[in-house]
């Protein structure tokens, strides 16, 4: 029997937005995966120094509301439950034990961060990448990694921009899934 093909979509999701939803729909629609797992980072150490971060339980609740009903997608709290800084290598090691084959689903902005990830060299040997375009820049698979670039039309939205627009009073319906709107209690900072 072939191994279960698992797409791993990790993030901070502060908040989840329609760009994430488009990414997940594209990834599932690609037919590459038997399941997509969204993991909500407990302590995204590359981001948490940047400013106030919405507490993990609230980000998890928003991610479940945003993605829980999407076809093929499950939302996991494993990175929150593990505690400590969130390293993708730990998540991948845990999931490989289930016998799955793993592809990391990442936005193009993450490609340049990969060398800073813990155990990046090992990670490159045990997972493939499925990279989603963001913005107009040409996306390529970095050397030393295996993977594919998605053919999706880029969606110009980020959590940072979403927070900024919400703080300015923009209608949340154009930014986040409907189901997330009642959970948007983050105080502006
Ligand atoms: P920030 O504004 O802090 O950079 P973000 O919008 O990138 O946040 P994250 O939770 O950090 O949100 O992202 C989780 C994953 O989703 C990352 O791999 C990121 O590249 C990807 N992603 C986020 N927004 C998009 C988008 N509009 N299109 C494709 N991928 C996206």
Structure, described:
The protein is of the alpha/beta class. It has a single domain, classed as 3-Layer(aba) Sandwich (Rossmann fold), CATH 3.40.50. The protein contains seven helices and six strands. It has a six-stranded parallel beta sheet with strand order 3-2-1-4-5-6, sandwiched between helices. Helix 2 links the parallel strand 2 and strand 3. It starts with a strand and ends in a 22-residue tail after the last helix. 35% of the residues are buried. It binds adenosine-5'-triphosphate. The site of adenosine-5'-triphosphate (ATP) has 17 residues, from helix 1, strand 4, helix 5 and helix 7.
Associated small molecules: adenosine-5'-triphosphate
Strand adjacency order, main sheet: 3-2-1-4-5-6
Proper CATH architecture: 3-Layer(aba) Sandwich
Percent of residues in beta strands? 15-25%
Cα radius of gyration in angstroms: 16 Å
Give the class from helix and strand content and strand pairing: alpha/beta
CATH topology: Rossmann fold
Supply the number of structural domains: 1
Let me know the largest β-sheet.
6 strands, parallel
Low-confidence stretches: none
Q: What is the 3D form?
A: globular
CATH superfamily: HUPs
Instruction: State the separation between the terminal residues, measured CA to CA.
Output: 51 Å
Give the % helix.
25-40%
Number of helices: 7
* Secondary structure: number of strands: 6
Taken in chain order, the helices and strands follow as: EHEHEHHEHHEEH
**Overall mean pLDDT score?**
94
CATH top level? Alpha Beta
């Amino acid at each position: 029997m072939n191994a279960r093909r698992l797409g791993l979509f990790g993030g901070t999701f502060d908040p989840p937005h329609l760009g994430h939803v488009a990414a997940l729909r594209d990834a599932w629609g690609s037919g590459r995966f038997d399941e997509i797992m969204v993991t909500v980072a407990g302590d995204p150490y590359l981001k948490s120094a940047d400013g106030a971060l919405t507490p993990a339980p609230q980000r998890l609740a928003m991610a479940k509301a945003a993605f829980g009903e999407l076809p093929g997608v499950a939302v996991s709290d494993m990175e929150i439950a593990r505690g400590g800084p969130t390293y993708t290598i730990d998540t991948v090691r845990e999931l490989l034990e289930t016998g799955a084959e793993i592809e990391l689903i990442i936005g193009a902005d993450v490609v340049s961060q990969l060398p800073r990830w813990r155990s990046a060299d090992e990670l490159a040997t045990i997972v493939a990448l499925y990279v989603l375009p963001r913005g107009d820049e040409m996306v390529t698979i970095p050397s030393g990694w295996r993977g594919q670039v998605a053919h999706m039309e880029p969606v110009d939205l980020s959590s940072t921009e979403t927070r900024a627009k919400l703080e300015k009073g923009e209608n949340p319906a154009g930014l986040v899934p409907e189901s997330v709107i009642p959970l948007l209690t983050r105080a502006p900072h």
